[in-house]
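Render this sequence as a predicted structure.
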Amino acid sequence: MPGETDKPVSLRQDLIWRLEAAGFAVLIGLLRLMGVERASAFGGGLLRWLGPKTGTHRTVIRNLRIAFPEMTPEAREQLARDSWEQTGRTFAETAVMDQLTPDSGRVEIVGLERLHAIRDSGRPVVFVSGHLACFEVMPAAILGAGVPCQITYRAANNPYVDAQIRKARARYGVKLFAPKGGDGARELLAGMARGESVALMNDQKFSEGPEAIFFGQPVNAAPGPTRLALKFGTVLQPLSVTRLPGVRFRLTVHEPIDPKQTGNRTEDIARGVQAITTFVEERVREHPVDWFWVHKRWPDRVYASLDSGGTSVERR
């Protein structure tokens, strides 16, 4: 909140934040009044209509051209519109996530025994995934299975909105943690030393780190999850979520990835990073409509090659 950091905040900025937070609270309140089915449908319909009219739609189409060069323009446009609807549904569903936990009957879990085994072992793991379908289902399932876990996220720029997000997640037992700098890294390490697992999203643009191949093109991917797994001698535990009809979801706890320690730390980390990236790609290929296509996942040179080369880029 303003005043809790060393960085001063102007009265004007604070007022803007408060007004934004008030609007956000009203929207969330209205979505909760609608209930799960209507809120999801409202969000999906709104973004299916609005998304293609925004500048971000060009990013979605460019991403689809990179990932699926063999797809016809018409098919890409249809997939883009369908993905906008899914994104809208996911946003609206965050307002009612306390009604979308495994206990609600709307979430089926494949591989629940793996979560129970992690819980019973008392040893931490590093959960990894991407922005697939209603990805908030994952932390709810982890904690619902009794696994002590630090759920990491990127804090909202508006601290008042961020406080509302934290409060909403707390309704179903999720305590969010936004690691920043050295202090954040030390907190993650201390938590894992206590036997707490950590959950990290691994499918967004990362300016540094090892290079991996994603849909045949280079991306920079975060090495943090693999570093943690190697440091604590544990596994990377992949999760995925698939949207089902009727605002229902299937969460799958996949076979763990066991990063090998060969003595060459750089290569060990690179292999782990590629394994996570490959896992995300496989899930996106299975259900492309479920992924969050609106962010620029690839480096600028890949987009530049796409724009100069017509409809596709060179595959690796």
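Summary. The beta strands are 107-110, 126-129, 149-152, 176-177, 197-201, 211-214, 217-220, 236-244, 248-253. The chain has eleven helices and nine strands.
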